[in-house]
Queue: 2 jobs
Job 1
Amino acid sequence: MTTEAVKNALRRQEIELPSWAFGNSGTRFKVFPQPGVPRSPEEKLADAAVVHKLTGVAPSVALHIPWDKVDDYAKLAAYAKEQGVRLGAINSNVFQDNDYMLGSVTNPDPRVRRKATDHLLECVDIMDATGSRDLKLWFSDGTNYPGQDDIRDRQDRLAEALKEVYDRLGDDQRMLLEYKLFEPAFYTTDVPDWGTSYAHCLELGPKATVCIDTGHHAPGTNIEFIVAFLLRVGKLGAFDFNSRFYADDDLMVGAADPFQLFRIMNEIIRADALDPDRGIAFMLDQCHNIEPKIPAIIRSVMNVQEATAKALLVDRDALREAQQEGDVLGANAALMDAYNTDVRPLLADLRSEQGLDPNPIAAYQRSGYFEQIAHDRADGQQAGWGA
Amino acid sequence: MTTEAVKNALRRQEIELPSWAFGNSGTRFKVFPQPGVPRSPEEKLADAAVVHKLTGVAPSVALHIPWDKVDDYAKLAAYAKEQGVRLGAINSNVFQDNDYMLGSVTNPDPRVRRKATDHLLECVDIMDATGSRDLKLWFSDGTNYPGQDDIRDRQDRLAEALKEVYDRLGDDQRMLLEYKLFEPAFYTTDVPDWGTSYAHCLELGPKATVCIDTGHHAPGTNIEFIVAFLLRVGKLGAFDFNSRFYADDDLMVGAADPFQLFRIMNEIIRADALDPDRGIAFMLDQCHNIEPKIPAIIRSVMNVQEATAKALLVDRDALREAQQEGDVLGANAALMDAYNTDVRPLLADLRSEQGLDPNPIAAYQRSGYFEQIAHDRADGQQAGWGA
Amino acid sequence: MTTEAVKNALRRQEIELPSWAFGNSGTRFKVFPQPGVPRSPEEKLADAAVVHKLTGVAPSVALHIPWDKVDDYAKLAAYAKEQGVRLGAINSNVFQDNDYMLGSVTNPDPRVRRKATDHLLECVDIMDATGSRDLKLWFSDGTNYPGQDDIRDRQDRLAEALKEVYDRLGDDQRMLLEYKLFEPAFYTTDVPDWGTSYAHCLELGPKATVCIDTGHHAPGTNIEFIVAFLLRVGKLGAFDFNSRFYADDDLMVGAADPFQLFRIMNEIIRADALDPDRGIAFMLDQCHNIEPKIPAIIRSVMNVQEATAKALLVDRDALREAQQEGDVLGANAALMDAYNTDVRPLLADLRSEQGLDPNPIAAYQRSGYFEQIAHDRADGQQAGWGA
Amino acid sequence: MTTEAVKNALRRQEIELPSWAFGNSGTRFKVFPQPGVPRSPEEKLADAAVVHKLTGVAPSVALHIPWDKVDDYAKLAAYAKEQGVRLGAINSNVFQDNDYMLGSVTNPDPRVRRKATDHLLECVDIMDATGSRDLKLWFSDGTNYPGQDDIRDRQDRLAEALKEVYDRLGDDQRMLLEYKLFEPAFYTTDVPDWGTSYAHCLELGPKATVCIDTGHHAPGTNIEFIVAFLLRVGKLGAFDFNSRFYADDDLMVGAADPFQLFRIMNEIIRADALDPDRGIAFMLDQCHNIEPKIPAIIRSVMNVQEATAKALLVDRDALREAQQEGDVLGANAALMDAYNTDVRPLLADLRSEQGLDPNPIAAYQRSGYFEQIAHDRADGQQAGWGA
């Protein structure tokens, strides 16, 4: 691919920001508050808009209900537009009510299941108001002890709730079903792996697709294999990007294993699935427990861009030829050549061409935005996971 | 369940033995030969017959082609019958020919793919001759290095080969598709997890089902969840039983984590899927690198029996009631009560009622069989993985 | 060992309860409050005393500072005595102050290090007041991102702080240094494994020993090996018992892998290290996020007792003889025979002989204690990790 | 560091090649033979010399006894010199004799222990003849089943053997004690982790140091932490470099996680421990199961060079300043800036300055060496692990 073709592809790339990444977060041991943290959905959108303004690649913001609950979603959407961004996926939350201690849609108690499903349906109502295409479903449902509940019954309950929500979706709406190996459930999780998510999506129909959170796998899982597999069968709907060294899903995407991120993006490029028209949502879903939120998100966006640029630079003809010939080292070298390229100059050029500062982090630091919000938001209740 | 009902269920249980477990095996570092190891398929059958004679629960023997290749399979089946056992699943082997260095049915070279598929078709021919119901497919196919081959193309090639073999199956024949996280492939494996196997089986049709090898998962994978899930969707075809502490799949089933084996059998009993009529094959697939083969296999069979007996003893009414009430500790206790029960007396009784020695290991040691084979089989080429 | 000898050993067993296990706990996603949860250190002691009264084996209670901070520790000790228990290890907490975001004793900022070390010294003051022997140190210190801080400098800072605290210990006081692979730090942890803890303890001197938390290891780690190794070199000081299927350390000890707990206790018995005089502290350190606290703790205590009883029942002569002869299956069988024994009748007998109810869980449920505390403690602030 | 300083450091770098990497290797399933594979220690040395000639950085070759057993080691050393390389570490092999089925120096049978220790002593004799400084010890010793042998007794036996060998070492000789989590032992390994190796080395004395094989850890282990820790206490003796995605240790170093290799080399540079005078041996220890041996080794050497160059490029002042200020993102960025640099032009320059071809792989392919050995070595017995 020529440099110009690479740049053209990068110009069309879109990365969705999660509203909650701008709020305080932490571990079960401690949430460390940070200066300047937003106190409202509007302030989160304002911060996200800064990221988009500096990077040019993050035009939409995912909401989390009820963390981002407002009275008037149309007004919120208008506010977003004013800031230069749009509202993205709606994320449901059925894990922070006392009723959900033993599960939400898979709870043994039908009353709790009803309540949980009603929340999901409410999220579709919100999508109608915001014009969001995607409903992202993550269920913390599961059990902590062998015997605690019936694994199979819980699948039946899950299927029933998913069906009801699926049937409620409009023509242009989709359901993204996320999976996670464990946490907060410590023995079984009701959607623990891509196979479970895929099987349910297949049963539901074309509007249901799998969401891959890069931090939600067992040690050693080959994520790019899953990406390639789901692309092949047309069931990859979205990514939740983040990274990790152990079992958490908190770190900035690309921070723990940049080579893995490159391999994932390589499968996307291989399948020509980068363009927004292809319907795959590239979202961040990460925490910034100890680092400042906004520059951490800028850095994350840049990490995805760099991995994408490298993947675009792979000499596909050389790669395919070496693969066909069984030239193990040659094929590996074709991939590594792209990975080992320093794409930062190319991205700096691209930004300059787009009228952006070639160095978004430096531009942010010079902007005075942080000092401003640290001052303006000194009072009030900072947003956080429990907000 | 009454003790009598438990015994009745256990009386109908069947565990299939792998012919190769009687041969020499080892690690990549060393194969330690053992005295008395069989030199032919017939001697493997003779050893397996001893296990069945002593335990009463292992009436069939799986073959591995070409390790168990003979000129006349009908004659081999007759010999098995004479010994008191029958021939079971046919296991294909597309990993030990120099041509398969870069894969068998997923090899980039169409000539190698043809050769591999032809071997699979030959296995179905053998099934016709032996009367075997099950064709077990394990593919070592995969890649060692990023870029080495195209992940998605390999899935296309896999699907094509599976389809050709599937179409060749007779009305009473089935295909069991095994998955494995890694080894011998060290970067991608073409059928790495249950989701991949399930997706292919679903596409193929009702004669294709998933085979769960208990040693083939990423660390932390909840195997009983997979069992429950596949039982729910009617796609569980077989088990390859063994156990492990790390990434291997070599140890005697139940040796590393007897509680896990119990939880697996508990899902089988929960779904009323123990009876051979239900169509699930319970097979051993393990190595005995440093321990004597025959008593190790007897022990393995007994471990499965004990786990089954415990699972049968679970008070299902108490369990379900506690689950429905959200009584976490009560439900867990209902399961643990069964697990903590010493079922060895019950099994000893059962064996006595069946005219067997209550202690199969002791009976084997008294039998003089080992001394006999150690003497008789002193010459010749011992069977092994590479045989 | 005769049944009587087993019972005698069990009569002398002591398991220490953590005060914090009686309070509310949870995951980063949600803390589910439970009825009857204590509102003060005294109420935690009262609950712990109930566990001891019912099991006869849990005579001491570990405190966590500042969660259990009181004005008068002598008075608290007297209250404990009145309830029938005594105060045990003092656990420091240098992870819940905003200053500790980048570490406590290993923080790059000397002011924060001073503050953290002062807290540890204060804990020794408290030990003087309570008469506690053990100071348990767990450091959440570490980094989240490569480069964030200098790994080696942090070891220097750690060594310096440990030295200062060590020198402050009285003649009858000890330091227990706990290790943990990760969480809350997600890239490096300053005391991540037993080797690091051991190396520091060795440098410090005889009053410093390693504390093994059974939930703090990388996947696949053989914990009983570490137990055996540390016993051999005289550096095992304590256990923090809990269990897990994944990377957490929350579940009731023995719940996830009862066979592992047995193997750990088997090394203790092998080294004759069960008796309190041998100086090893057997402590619980677990959460009860979704199950009622008191019966969960009773169950945990019973799980340790059962594993201990099984380990005591191992026929050591038969085991050793088989080991010496290289009889792999015989040696394994000697161990498994003990594990497969149902020791619940023996423990019920022992309790009866001790004037206890043979079934502590049932006795607790009949006692009305839960109903009482659920009623009495309806108001006020429930204790929790953040309390 | 200036470019010139970086180049100067790289000019002094030395990477040791393992003779066995040039021979055939494989998995337990299959060894795929390759054309041109050496048939003798001399041919292995000739191949290694080619790697050194092309890269300029691999002047020594480690031997494996008995795989590289010859009658006259002085003559072999002279042959090596003639080829342009020298003999390096002597690797013992106590895992491929039938006697070692249940262990070598930790075997319950004193006769086997004697035999194993005698082999180790013989290796020191060979070192005397070859002038090698390092004795590398890897013990496959361990057990497969709980109870199989006494964990603690095996440590006693290990300590005894190590002591005898240590006492035999000459003034300029060292012992490198390698550790490995598992394989071929599947339950306990007698030297499973760095802590065990470190503890034994500490007891032995200054001539005993730890060897880190990058493929021998539990999932999630932070290897650079171990590097930093051992450097701090002066007990890091050597690396065995390779890489892996799962539990194997077979792939080319840097192939699976190039960022990890960089972080490891970063700790080396941080401690100024790259120079050969510092006494740390940087050795490859890997297999090339499906890729051609010589170019795979050239590639591995280049991967280490590239990681080293990047580590040398880290702006240490900027890094330290950001660390001291608690600037998480700034410190991480300082590290990543170096990692993201494309150092291939710098290394190509360096090679040109050294009179080498800037592209060693291309130079090898043009050289005709492979065609030559494929032709010349068509007959005879190819070297392999079992040779």
Note: Chain D has one domain: 13-314+358-376.
Job 2
Amino acid sequence: MSNPENSTFYLQSQKGRITIANSNSGEFNLPEIEPLLLDDEVLPRAPSSPSFRVLGVNMRIVDNKKVHNTGRYKNTNLIVRRNKEFIIDIRFDRPFNIMEDTVEVEFLIGSSPDVNRGTYITVSFGKDKGDMIWRCRVLNTNGNEVTVGITPDTGCIVGRFRTFVAIVRGLAKQRTPKNPDTDVYVLFNPWDSADQVYMSKESDRQEYVLNDVGVIFNGEINNMSSRPWNYGQFEKGVLDACLLVLDSGKVPLVYRGNVTEVVRQGSALMNSQDDDGVLVGNWSGDYAIGTSPTAWTGSPEILLKYAREDAVPVCFAQCWVYAGVMNTFLRCLGIPARVITNYNSAHDNNGNLKTDIMLDEDGKVNRSRTRDSVWNYHCWNEVYMKRTDLPQKFSGWQVVDSTPQETSDGLYRCGPTSVTAIKEGELSYPFDGKFVFAELNSDVVYHQIDKYGKTKILHVDTTYVGKRVVTKLINSNQYEDVTSTYKYPEGSKSDKQAMQMAESRGVPSREYDDPGEAGVDIQLQANTIKVGEDFKLTMHINNQTSKRCTINATITGSVVFYTGVTSTTVKQETRQATVEAWKTENLLIDVRATEYMAHLVEQSNLLFVVNGRIQETGVTLTRMRVVTLRPPELTILVSGSPQVGKDFTVIVEFRNLFNFALEDVQLRLDSPGLIQTKFKSYKQILPGGVLQYTESITPLNPGKRVLIAGLDCARLRQVTNQLEIDILAV
Amino acid sequence: MSNPENSTFYLQSQKGRITIANSNSGEFNLPEIEPLLLDDEVLPRAPSSPSFRVLGVNMRIVDNKKVHNTGRYKNTNLIVRRNKEFIIDIRFDRPFNIMEDTVEVEFLIGSSPDVNRGTYITVSFGKDKGDMIWRCRVLNTNGNEVTVGITPDTGCIVGRFRTFVAIVRGLAKQRTPKNPDTDVYVLFNPWDSADQVYMSKESDRQEYVLNDVGVIFNGEINNMSSRPWNYGQFEKGVLDACLLVLDSGKVPLVYRGNVTEVVRQGSALMNSQDDDGVLVGNWSGDYAIGTSPTAWTGSPEILLKYAREDAVPVCFAQCWVYAGVMNTFLRCLGIPARVITNYNSAHDNNGNLKTDIMLDEDGKVNRSRTRDSVWNYHCWNEVYMKRTDLPQKFSGWQVVDSTPQETSDGLYRCGPTSVTAIKEGELSYPFDGKFVFAELNSDVVYHQIDKYGKTKILHVDTTYVGKRVVTKLINSNQYEDVTSTYKYPEGSKSDKQAMQMAESRGVPSREYDDPGEAGVDIQLQANTIKVGEDFKLTMHINNQTSKRCTINATITGSVVFYTGVTSTTVKQETRQATVEAWKTENLLIDVRATEYMAHLVEQSNLLFVVNGRIQETGVTLTRMRVVTLRPPELTILVSGSPQVGKDFTVIVEFRNLFNFALEDVQLRLDSPGLIQTKFKSYKQILPGGVLQYTESITPLNPGKRVLIAGLDCARLRQVTNQLEIDILAV
């Protein structure tokens, strides 16, 4: 009679329960000789006839990678995609006899490989073929060598498999010894129509799976800007780092063939909350113990640091860093992905689809009572996939957001949620439709607090949030406007139907006693302004009534984080204007650099709120406007025309035009496929001083490359530039 | 210009971000005198006319509790239900003038009360009424006293609110000081048709909300048994313990008015995985460092221990303990709930809806290759609620499962998921429909492993799992069969449609090459057997063919946990039988107590697997059967007829009929509404020895009560009994 302790797999601590595997790595391997009799009394012994042995296995790495679209991965192992055949050669010590011999090729993943879990795959050929999940066929026999085609199944786990070849004879199996060189990575397959991530257009796949560089849009809606980002999914070590992310997040292996699960878990694992995820979020302005979120130029530096330091979270990130690294993670595993920017993005703390801005009687934002905020932009990812768990129409692009804003069902993560479902207001379906819907559709409600602490609604802006949603255009650094994939036109019949659907799915209905503002409107306007410049803010008053109106307006300017949280108030001015019937009037407000420079926080945003009272009617108007100040320029120059095998020089130049010194300045130069991230720090750049950094590069491969440079210090964040170069063949 | 550090609410560590409140307790309170001018330069000062003051507040606790169905809570504070008026009296130092005076009643919850979050509620009456979320009306004025009716809104947060009364005059508010006696608990309201938990029938509410005792079904489907359970939701300290569960789980206050959220979070917080939840699961058989799961008689002992020890998880639980404590948590907060038992319940590790049982060639379960298990029963809860987040038809009973089986979306929890959705195969909707569907609908697939390690399917049993789902009947300790609420009849057209729907929602389709077994069937049968008895197992062979058949059968008996994980093999016997055409035959297999007694694990289950080969056809038949051995009896006796104010005696008696001593025996006596759990331990009960425990009780209130007794020790688990008594009035 057997005893539970005899079993290798048996769970020690919880005898009555069973556990599951959640790590790709793990040292479970198979014996080189395995006896087949199950009777305990027969001891392992060598096979009776020792003449048939495996001498070698050729994984045909270069050829296979080419047809599997994995040739760009800087990784010496074979990398294939699901449901596509790869070809290997097996060499024996005598000719293979298809009628007599049975050969098995085994693929193992994790530390407790299990046939019923897809973690122990066996394919066989020859006499005694068993049932197979992966397909296998003999393509050719040539002397002692057999060429075999093997096709992983379309739902196969994605990760690194260990390969063994076993000969089955008599009472034993004889296996090749463990050999990491024959390990094979299996990835998702956007080229295969049966795969959950299938994309039909090659141009889409080139951009969303194979492009390793891009731009991420930021700034604010009236003054959009962008920064380059090195996704670098093919860089050396990045694929292993992505698998490490799944391992350190203990994502069960059985889930790793399901894109929905990989994406959702990935979203949780990009941030360090709840788990040892990749990046530590920090919005404090103090980044001394790490790298400031604005200083990074791409994902490989972050992922490789994470891997090098055994999954210790990397400091620090804000939304575009999360979205950038997530994009790398997804593309690296073969999941089509892109980075999205939403101008303006609500962060709805309690799911009521209202962003409440509380103003004091003097028009200033009351910071202690304002608990919601509107981010002037927010970045997330979209992934393209079939949602096998949902009705068919919800397949296609899905939102996934790795920035830890709110816990989603207990953990910091968000999505995947169908873009179509958001547009239709179909918010019952997993995951996190309501949160994303709120990011795009919240109303901004301005309240005034009176001296008794009582509040009244001043104004409701139903169009401020989710005004424009963009992503990088294919083959271009310009933006593609994808707003219409998320929303019907404001006020259209379909828009109203979508809102009704959302309400029937638990979104609170929004009705306000919005005080009428009939006929008079205010807008705040500003041109593009550079950090350090004096500028004029225009208050544009449009009187569309038949009566003259007199407005008393208080304009308050605050420094503001890109998350909409206000910091120091830098400007407060009261102005009066009289506007004749059917006329417009512009008031100019002077803002001096000396007023704001000392108080700026990262990304250099100013928030202006105007609170105007029309004397004749007693109606109060409230508007806000974020002004993003442009950082100074960083120049990238290349000397000569780059060519394979020849040195060329890159010069990055920056001139400090401020009247103060910049201290502890970080400079990065990055170029996926060309160099690893170069980093240099400078103690000080004096006023008027020029920084010049020179790098000599010898390209190994021809083709287009992008040089990305970034400069960052406490007083000046997010100074970036990029330059496309074409490396000529020899 | 202001400075961020001046603000009380301002988040220190993450300047650019905002946090949310997640604790009911918390010491934020309001000043007794609050100046109303916002101008910083006016200092706080006493109100100008000091003649109008609040002298006292009468919460009318007894009367209010009666009409709010909260009179049974052993708690000295007011407890009300949402959207139902409660009445309080406020006494001033002079008559209240409705045309002149303004009075506010404020209700605060948590440490950062916020008007926009529902954590700072103000109602007012008199001259200057503001907008109100809770309703308020003056019912009567009588001299210096005003009687006010206050109605919490229907979506109100559930928890303990602090009450203040403030007089608003001139430039200040004057408040009553903090007084815990006026704290008021707000609960969900199943009596109110607007509430998310509304139940229309009073008999349902009496059972599912107000019944504080019940039975939980266990055993196995052919031999169902039950154990009594003290839910004790009204016991002293239990309501506070339930709120502590939410606090220690950091459930944001804003979610605590949403039943779906409270239920889901509650399911995560019953178990200690991921968080400091209430109960530590243990299926190891070794419970020395805590209380064995079988030893508990009810929830109050567990919840009060958890509260007393500052939210340190309590050791130990298995499924019925989780379901029992969860039931208390839900009923206590006003959520209709019941405990469900599913015979047999699949634990599907990888969501493929197959439970793979791997048999060796000799018919024994191969423990190392069998990674799935079928629990012979499994308990979960159902809660009754409107699912505002889903299409209407999915409201009603919802499954919620607190036993940590699999992580649901990253945490150990499960549900709520609509019973209707399970039945219809509508598995896209949150939460965890697929997992629950698998518990009820998995197929059991028997594989045989040959000596090469290759497997073949022997038999597929599509009916073994989810055969019967039961709960306690209203007003009875018998069971109600609710299987038809979860499943259409096996094989019916609707059943097929539900399976198709499930497959279109991502459940893998199940097709097998099931070897035909045409015409011959085996069943294993056993009568009710007591632990320690010898018994006979009947192998019933039914030959429904026109030919004689000869069967060679191997019967293997193992000790098994109720989770389906097998332990020691205690029996293995090979038998042959010949059955004539159209006849049946019974083979009897003797099982002796000496064979199994030394190996029994808790709950005394034996698993018999028969593996028979029909000589004439080569067809193999496999069946399994769990045999639950009944524990010996525990007797509860009462002397005399219990009456209010008079002593009576309860005697609990147990006789050790085994031929071995029972050691470290725990005895519990419990009776909600009558006594707190009494606990006694005995070093040893010798063979033939009798344990007699006597307790003298003086009832304070008349009515029906249930006495629950339980005895537990390592060699004998789950010996329980109950007795209903009627306490006469004086």
Note: Chain A touches chain B through 86 residues (CB under 8 Å).
